[in-house]
Every structure is written in structure tokens, then in C-alpha cells.
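Quick note —
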Amino acid sequence: MNISVVVPLFNEEESLPELYAWIERVMKANGFSFEVIFVNDGSTDRSWEVIEKLKAQSDCVKGIKFRRNYGKSPALYCGFAEAQGEVVITMDADLQDSPDEIPELYRMITEDGYDLVSGWKQKRYDPLSKTLPTKLFNATARKVSGIPNLHDFNCGLKAYRKDVVKNIEVYGEMHRYIPYLAKNAGFQKIGEKVVHHQARKYGSTKFGFNRFFNGYLDLISLWFLSKFGVKPMHFFGLLGSLMFFIGMISVIIVGVSKLHAMYNGLPYRLVTDSPYFYLSLTAMIIGTQLFLAGFLGELISRNAPERNNYQIEKKI
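Predicted structure written out below.
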């Protein structure tokens, strides 16, 4: 099979028939063998009934129905597990992503050798309240992830080599960082294609402003896990040791200052009357706690079942 199209959706009953007809038209025009996997993320409208009707009309349709709304990442995870195509395409169900982009995305994967191609909605039909935070978010993601050529990490229209989706785990709300997940899994050839963005035709957006705050928190988590996930002692141990060392040196300075004053007959006060003593003691306590956190994290990491789960590309 040439292409699997994974479409996560939540309350998009109006757009589904039009979206599938558009995808089918593009696939047949280019002679692709294909499947479309609709993942119904706990919709409360008639989306599942529409998917069932589409399935009855075409064997190319597959459907997955969640009992409740879990989010886009779980929907993609289940869709990736089901996908059988040589190339996997993801797109949103709101008709803002154009299926006409599929042939070129497929060519970039199969002929140009990309592992992943991410769409870039260079011209967007969104309000400034959405586009400005998106630009800031993408600038931060480029810097942290080390993928400087991507301008739109969160674009729903992406193409993947099959090996990519079978070797990454999309969880929580990490769908925003699939290129970063792919890079961490060893897939280095990540490209970008400018794609057409269309205004929403039916319904309203399902994402609120809080996704930007959650996105930054998820980015920090992903960066930390990629750097120190299997070696937490390198982070907490180093930071804890540094704080403990600074606190200990400060305590020594406070004590030596008092002894110097006593020896030279100068006025002095109790060590416990100095605020620097308590600041130093606090630094030593926090340093010890950080060191122990790293030690416990190391014990947990060493006993994790996936600690030796390495990405092996070939064997001969």
C-alpha cells in the first residue's frame, strides 16, 4: 500500500464526507493505493455515524472510536499503530489542510529520501491572537529542538516514512513535537514544505489559548527527557553538588570571619545571628535534596524496562 492517511477528529461531522471525497479524488488521480484512518476522539456529534457510512461505501476507510475525548496525541498514536502504508500522512479533519498537497509530500518521502516532511502554513487565515503566539512558540521550539529549518512544528499536515511512526511514541500532548521525537529516535532527515492553509469551513476551533502554555511546559519536559532521561544524576547530581559546595564554602567563610574577629579582639556576633549562615545552610540542604533526587532518579532509570531500547537501523 502506498499511503495511509491518519485523520484525528473531534466533532467534525459536517466536514468528513467532503474531506474523504477530496482525498479519494486525489488518490485516484495519482494512482495511489491508500487507506484513510479516521480516529474519532470521543466526539459528541454524529461523526462516528458519518464514518460508518463512509466505511460502508468504501473499503479504503477505517475507523477508530474512543469512548471519551483523550486528545490529539493519543488519536495519532492509535492511528499510527493501525497504519500500513509505505508513507503515512496526517491531516486535520476541519478542511484547513489540503489533500492536494499529498502527491508532493509522498514524492519528497519516496524520492528525496526524507524521513519526515512537515507542512508550513506560511500564509495563515487565523486571527493575530493566534498567529503571534504561534510564531513565538515555533521560534522557541526551533531553538530547543535543534531543528532550525522548521517554521511550523504544530502543522497537522505532515508526511512520514512508515519506519518513523512505528518507532516513536506520541503521548500526552506531544503531537506538537513529533519532529523532535523523530530526531531523538535517530531520524535526522527532516524537511519542510510550504502548504496551502484554508479558512475553517464548518464549526469552530477545538483548541484554546492554554495550549501555548502547555506547549512550552511539554517542550521543557521533552528537552529534559532527551538530555537526561536515562542519566538524571548528570543533572540533579551536578546541580546539587554545586549548591552544596557553595553553601559549605559560605558557612566556612562565616565561621572564619568570626574567629578572625575574636583573635584580633574585634567586636563580633554569634554565627546564628548572621543571615548568611541560614542562607548557606539552606543551600546545603537544597543541594543534598537535589543530589538525592538524582540518585533516586538514577535507580529508577537503571531499572526501567526500556533502558536499553536503542534504535537499530540495520543488521547483517
